[in-house]
Write a structure and sequence with these properties.
The structure holds 2 protein chains of 2 kinds. Chain A is built from 12 helices and 5 strands. Chain A is of the alpha/beta class. Chain A folds into 2 domains: 2-104, Transcription Regulator spoIIAA; 146-379, no CATH class. A 5-stranded mixed β-sheet of chain A has the order 1-2-3-4-5, covered by helices on one side. In chain A, strand 2 and strand 3 (23-32) form a beta hairpin. The model of chain A has no long low-confidence stretch (mean pLDDT 89). A 6-stranded mixed β-sheet of chain B has the order 6-7-8-3-9-10, sandwiched between helices. In chain B, strand 4 and strand 5 form a beta hairpin. Classes of the chains: A alpha/beta, B alpha/beta. The interface between A and B is medium-sized, with 22 and 39 residues.
């Protein structure tokens, strides 16, 4: 009695099992290719007459060219034999195949046991809480380091890295203008559209200039610029410092006794601190121009009427409030980007995660800070 | 007399996972000391403990008699000034030229004027065979040159102890051998204490006065001594297999 893979053409892979008492001889023949489907060894064995063989051997006189498919088939046989205490006799196989089978024989991995068992769900909750606490305290410690570094800069103990500072200034000056222009213009247009549609219902279309001026100067100019810069520059800071972490450039600072905060963080944060207010003033002007365009086109206001209305509605304090927010946002973006960059892990994907978390943290903190400043401004009637 | 490096009962840990424990050894002044072991045995981690990038959960690491972990900022900074580290990939600051890389530690940590710094930079780059490359950025030079430039930076402040993390990794045999010669010359000519983390057998036998073996299966050091002696009379099978490149496979 014997079983075979398939009633195949002579050149196709085939494995015929011949029973000799409690010994099975698998006669392998034909061309074995991965593209060809062959039966699994155990299924083939199940269809053979010998239900419980003591050993399995091979005959390969008619075996043609072969590839990994034959090794996979033999590994299945080997696994079956190991699991069922059956002798796996490879003496009939060519030496090249037995050598490859020996290489493929798994060597148990060295597993280093952890000192503690896996934590329970309650413990995991606790650990998550502790991780959150650690994260908050390390953020606070980082804030302290930056403040300390700033103090040492002001007292002349730290040299300012002007080159990095000017790179940040350039990148957030002319480099950021196109995107800031586009977004600010569109925000101004959207506010004006919204105002024109709603206010005209009450015959108060003239007041669209109030809405544009007030909205851009106090809120949207700073907020939108902050979000753009958080996505653009904050992520850039995190990726840049994260890459330096991966390539051990940060370690090189630390082991020389040079503070990475002095060298890398301070010029970046100060660069944004300087540039954000300027960008916001620019965004305010562009947004107002966009709004004015809509007012002229939709409700037939003249530029003089629009500007006159705007100036009568907004005051210098509104503009200064926006600029003040911009300085806060600049610090937040620089802080979040640099902190996440310095916290990066040691692989390339960690850099991407740091950049993402820098943007998320930056935008979240910006919106939070905006709400707090607005609340304080309302309290103090600004 | 204090040893340049003294490690006592050090335990190395990643979270709850103990990588190595009970590490105790001292490194003599002027010797080339190799830390060897298989991949994942914690060699580079040990280097991080030695140079103060990680604080030991238990045990102590003393550099020139002072414990880095226990030092205040000024003491730590003073002590770090006396060591230099060459990282696996060079870790040159990519935004600075080679000359600026070598000059930065001098500008930040010494009182030298600009002319003196320029002279030191030129000397250090020449010592590592990079005369004339000062204006190049790290991205514009080969891996071997990057490592040599990094060595010039590590030597900028004339440290007592130089640490090398896998110096020959990624280098062709000739460049690796040239770096080995440089390491040996630093120890022999300047009396600098050299600590090298590597699993490159050719380098180990070429440069090491003594070698320490980290055995991942025992999670501790299991051999310390002259590498040739360890190879000829190995204290255990892991050390024998490591030093004779024996995979343990019969095929």
């Amino acid at each position: 009695m014997h079983a075979r893979t398939a009633p195949a053409a002579p050149d196709r892979a085939a494995a015929d099992l011949h029973s000799h008492g409690d010994r099975i001889v698998a006669v392998l023949s034909g061309t074995w290719q991965l593209e060809e489907t062959t039966s699994r060894f155990d299924r083939l064995l199940a269809s053979s007459s010998s239900a419980s063989p003591r050993s399995i051997a091979f005959e390969t006189a008619a075996l043609g060219p072969w590839d990994s498919s034959l090794l996979i088939f033999l590994r299945q046989g080997q696994s079956y034999c190991e699991a069922n205490d059956v002798a796996f006799d490879t003496t009939g196989l060519p030496a090249r195949i037995t050598a490859l089978l020996a290489l493929a024989t798994p060597v148990p991995e060295r597993v280093l046991e952890t000192e503690a068992p896996a934590p329970s769900r309650v413990a995991q909750l606790g650990l998550a809480g502790l991780a959150a606490w650690d994260s908050a305290s390390s953020a606070l410690a980082f804030l302290g380091e930056v403040a300390d570094s700033l103090l040492r800069l002001l007292t002349g103990q730290v040299r300012m890295q002007w080159r990095t500072f000017w790179v940040v200034v350039q990148s957030n000056g002319s480099g950021a203008l196109p995107i800031v222009t586009l977004i600010a213009l569109l925000v101004g247009v959207i506010i004006a559209f919204l105002g024109a549609v709603v206010l005209q219902r009450f015959g108060a279309g003239y007041y669209v200039s109030y809405l544009v001026g007030y909205g851009m100067l106090r809120e949207m100019g700073a907020l939108m610029t902050g979000i753009i810069i958080a996505g653009r520059t904050g992520a850039g800071f995190a990726a840049e410092l994260g890459s330096m972490k991966v390539t051990e450039e940060l370690d090189a600072y630390s082991t020389l006794g040079i503070s990475p905060v002095d060298q890398l963080v301070l010029p970046r944060v100060l660069g944004l601190f300087v540039m954000m207010p300027l960008l916001v003033v620019y965004a305010d002007l562009v947004g107002i121009l966009g709004g004015m365009g809509v007012a002229i086109a939709l409700i037939d206001l003249t530029p003089t009427q629009f500007i006159g209305g705007l100036l009568s509605a907004v005051s210098l304090s509104d503009a200064l409030l926006g600029v003040f927010k911009a300085t806060i946002f600049g610090l937040i973006i620089g802080f979040a980007g640099c902190m996440q960059g310095l916290r990066t892990g040691s692989d390339a994907s960690a850099v991407g995660r740091s950049a993402t978390s820098a943007v998320v943290l930056g935008i979240t903190l910006i919106i939070l800070a905006n709400a707090i400043v607005d609340w304080l401004a309302a309290l103090w009637l600004i | 007399m204090t040893h340049p490096v003294e490690v006592t009962d050090l335990t190395m840990q990643y979270g709850p996972l103990v990588v190595m424990r009970d590490l105790t050894f001292t490194i003599e002044r002027g010797e080339v000391f190799v830390i060897m072991g298989g991949s994942g045995s914690g060699k580079s981690t040990l280097l991080k403990y030695l140079v103060g990038l990680r604080d030991a959960p238990s045990g102590t690491v003393r550099i020139n008699g002072e414990e880095l972990a226990a030092s205040d900022r000024d003491a730590r900074r003073r002590n770090l000034r006396r060591i230099g580290v060459l990282y696996q990939g060079g870790a040159l600051w990519s935004g600075l030229t080679l000359a600026e890389n070598v000059a930065l530690p001098l500008e930040e940590l010494s009182e030298l004027d600009a002319d003196s710094i320029a002279e030191v930079v030129e000397l250090k780059l020449a010592l590592v065979g990079l005369r004339g490359y000062g204006g190049f950025y790290p991205s514009a030079i080969s891996g071997g040159m990057r490592k040599r430039a990094s060595l010039a930076r590590a030597m900028a402040l004339d440290p007592d102890v130089l640490f090398f993390d896998e110096p020959s990794s990624g280098l062709d045999p000739i460049s690796a051998s040239r770096l080995d010669d440089l390491i040996r010359a630093l120890a022999d000519s300047f009396g600098t204490t050299i600590v090298v983390v590597t699993h490159d057998l050719a380098s180990i036998f070429r440069i090491a006065d003594r070698a320490l073996f980290l055995d991942i299966s025992q999670r501790t050091m299991t051999a310390l001594g002259d590498p040739a002696t360890l190879r000829d009379t190995p204290p255990n099978d892991e050390v024998r297999r490591f030093l004779t490149r024996d995979s343990g496979s019969s095929t």
